[in-house]
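Structure ticket #2291
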Amino acid sequence: MNRFAIKGWCPSAYRPMLSGDGLVVRVRPRAGRLSAAQATGIADLADRYGNGMTDLTGRANLQIRGVSAAGHEPLLVGLARLGLIDADEECEAQRNVVVAPFSAEGDDTYSLATELERALSARHLGLPVKFGFAVDCGAERVLAKTPADIRIERGNAGGLIVRADGAEPGRAVGRGEVVPVALSLAEWFVESSGATDGRGRMAPYLASGAVLPDALAGNATPASATAIPGPGLCAVGALVGLAFGQMQSATLKFVAGLGSGLRLTPWRMMLIEGLNELPEHDGLVTEASDPILRVTACTGAPACPQAHAETRVLAKALAPCLAHDTRLHVSGCAKGCAHPGVSSITLVGTEEGFDLIRNGCARDVPVASRLDPAEMLADPAALLGAG
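Resolution: structure written out below.
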């Protein structure tokens, strides 16, 4: 039996989530960027009030782990001094914006993300806590597979569009219309869906039969999507990976000192601005071919109270055995927080051992159950081979 509780919400700075290693406090960097001083400050706060570990999430946020109840309030004070949280808790929670990290001067990504966040910080929309925006205005979209409910993108014709997730076309807009139209779309969703339980999302709502009003619909198709890049150099800096998206404070301080700032990604990678060579550090993944980049693993036991098993030691041991086209997901329970989507192989911790799922997600029906980690490691070829 694989029981778990669905929380229906994600942690925030003001509303941390209790885990097995203490409180998890989520920080939403403004427009997806951290200055060197902000990154260093977060690392210092993680050491002072947490256990020194931070997570890079699938929404390009940072989570400070292991915070005590007594340390939460002074941590908030420190984050406020760094300019990383809003004074209003509700506005802070709805400032849920993921930003394409490769923005260049003139493509509107950074300026629109900043304008959108300021608007979200200034008014209460009553959005569900998981409702989010994506700002992806480059010539090719890089956030096409990143969860979001309202997307600000570049259209095939070259102009800007605002698109409801789940709708193939979007509405073509001028530069000054983007944020007002995006907020109007959010308001329509709240008013028409009545989503007040925190779990309302745009794509399922449209799939249920909801129809966008004419003023918010359109026929502009988005630009083509590009594959998620691996670690390496790009036009604006160096992209580096993190095994399982986690790093120690020393690693965060190290990368903070290398360039002019950091851009966070939803792919468990960071972009170090202005760096023209890949750094060397034990906590970083710099080879695009490194198999650890094709492995996803949640925090697992004992840090997560819902997990039935330790995950990351097993995942790291299996990584070198993966075929080049295989993706592995190791989850401590059937909730599958770290990767809700499909993987070539998914291992799910249960009270009796691990379930094995092929070409599915953590909640799918397993092809094998009660697998022992020691036996899996003794013959990884049998586990990872084609089933």
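Closing remark: The chain has three domains: 17-84+229-273, 91-207, 291-384.
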